[in-house]
């Protein structure tokens, strides 16, 4: 069941983005786990939207996801600018932790996939310590090619997780989940980007000041100047929204 049949959404260039806050999002996904309804959760940002506009296959992945939440500040701004505001930004990193807090109540099983062997081991260890009542059902690093997919799918399905978090970068994690979600059949399957790097201590999240200013993207750029080409999508997105204001939220 797609979230837009239950939750209010706003289409951003044809991608239906949830308008509800973090609490309602977690409540909705808790029901998904309870009912064993598979959901691909995409944490949308402007870079992903611009990629989708340039790549029909990626657009189809975004449109077919059961739930798309407004992770990027630019997506929140676009909805507000077009007079279809969302309740708040639902950051993927925070959603991961909120789901794990909820998982403590129900002893949910969690599978972690992605990043380097050292990072994934440390992430599993730290999350188990932080959330002792969840079950880390399994984990695997993200350094594998298509030839390993069958083995990984088998390992994941054997572990019977309630939550699957995949950290392989937006260009590969969303397509991978979309390709196999019907076989994985997990209630919550979510791409989490660099979250494992932060959880493991390998890197730091933007300070609170940057978060409050909605400028986490700037902090990442300052820390990793090589990201500048990727970040060029941000002003392009803003210009497109301003120029096409009347079309942004039209159903496509």
Automatic annotation (TrEMBL):
Task: For this UniProt record, give its keywords in alphabetical order, as a comma-separated list.
Answer: Cell wall biogenesis/degradation, Glycosyltransferase, Teichoic acid biosynthesis, Transferase
Answer whether the UniProt record assigns the keyword Manganese to this protein. Answer: no
Q: Does the keyword Disulfide bond apply?
A: no
Q: What does this protein do?
A: Catalyzes the conversion of GlcNAc-PP-undecaprenol into ManNAc-GlcNAc-PP-undecaprenol, the first committed lipid intermediate in the de novo synthesis of teichoic acid.
> Which PANTHER family does the UniProt record give?
PTHR34136, UDP-N-ACETYL-D-MANNOSAMINURONIC ACID TRANSFERASE
Similarity-based family = Belongs to the glycosyltransferase 26 family. TagA/TarA subfamily.
Name this polypeptide is given: N-acetylglucosaminyldiphosphoundecaprenol N-acetyl-beta-D-mannosaminyltransferase
